């Protein structure tokens, strides 16, 4: 508990500051207080937890899973072949220059309000950090170790499995912990721009009613879910990588 105490103290202090500022402002449609948001979460618990949260989690989980497969696959391809790296790397970087809010309506036009229009937005946002971070992990392998294994007659595949994969494993978990919040953001943006359910859609609907607490409630719920997911990945990371220092 002692190692988490500073984070708890800071979180409580920020919440108290937020509460005080909201009370002084006294305009809940602009800045609702944490107490008002908590009350709204309880008031709207059934539609939020039973309808909109599952819809957003479906988009997030599918998009994140595809992003992991795509990102790791691209990282392996770029590490395996120099020509592929030179061809793929600029394209991967260029994909991040596309404004998400500009292309998301096109996905809705192509796929309608189905899950895939929102999943594509999530993939577009999340696959980049996974691909680049894992690729950097492969590149972090010491050249001397590769040459030693090559001297012992190891094949390229054996060097990759026995040396490069363990080296890149910490980078992989770091990439996943970055991608989880980004996947949540991507899903919320896609739902905000065009959806019939989901926390992003619900937040937009509350904004049209000038309900400040209703706008913040799904956002806070998304943040809590993302933090819990990152915590689970951190626990798995500590189980898989014993030599890393715990945060």
Summarize the structure.
With 247 residues, the chain is mainly α. It contains ten helices and no strands.
List the helices and strands and how they pair.
Elements: H1 5-25, H2 34-43, H3 45-80, H4 82-95, H5 100-111, H6 115-139, H7 143-151, H8 156-193, H9 199-208, H10 212-240
Helix pairs in contact: 2-10, 3-4, 3-6, 3-8, 3-9, 5-6, 5-8, 6-8, 8-9, 8-10, 9-10
Query: Could you list the spans in which at least 5 consecutive residues all have pLDDT below 50?
Result: none
String of helices and strands: HHHHHHHHHH
Largest β sheet strand count, sense and barrel closure: none
What is the structural class? mainly alpha
| N- and C-termini, Cα separation | 13 Å
Number of helical segments with 4 or more residues: 10
Beta-strand content bin: under 5%
Mean pLDDT: 86
Task: Characterize the structure shown.
This protein is mostly helical and 247 residues long. The protein is 83% helix and 0% strand. It is built from ten helices and no strands. Helix 8 packs parallel to helix 9 (199-208) and helix 9 runs antiparallel to helix 10 (212-240).
Attribute tags:
mainly alpha; 10 helices; 247 residues
């Amino acid at each position: 508990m002692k190692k988490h105490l500073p984070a708890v103290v800071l979180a409580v202090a920020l919440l108290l500051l937020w509460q005080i500022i909201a009370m002084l402002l006294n305009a809940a449609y602009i800045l609702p207080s944490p107490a008002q948001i908590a009350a709204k979460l309880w008031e709207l618990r059934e539609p939020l937890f039973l309808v909109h949260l599952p819809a957003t989690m479906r988009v997030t989980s599918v998009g994140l899973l595809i992003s992991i497969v795509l990102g790791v696959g691209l990282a392996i391809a770029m590490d395996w072949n120099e020509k592929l790296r030179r061809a793929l790397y600029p394209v991967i970087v260029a994909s991040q220059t596309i404004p998400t809010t500009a292309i998301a309506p096109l996905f809705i036009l192509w796929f309608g309000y189905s899950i895939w229009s929102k999943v594509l937005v999530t993939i577009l946002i999340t696959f980049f950090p996974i691909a680049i971070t894992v690729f950097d992990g492969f590149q972090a392998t010491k050249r001397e170790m590769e040459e030693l294994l090559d001297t012992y007659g190891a094949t390229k595949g054996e060097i990759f499995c026995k040396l490069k994969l363990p080296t890149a494993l910490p980078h992989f978990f770091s990439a996943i912990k970055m991608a989880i919040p980004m996947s949540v953001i991507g899903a919320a943006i896609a739902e905000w721009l065009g959806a019939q359910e989901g926390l992003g859609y619900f937040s937009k609907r509350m904004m049209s009613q000038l309900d400040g607490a209703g706008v913040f409630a799904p956002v806070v719920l998304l943040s809590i879910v993302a933090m819990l997911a990152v915590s689970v990945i951190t626990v798995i990371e500590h189980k898989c990588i014993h030599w890393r220092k715990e945060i």
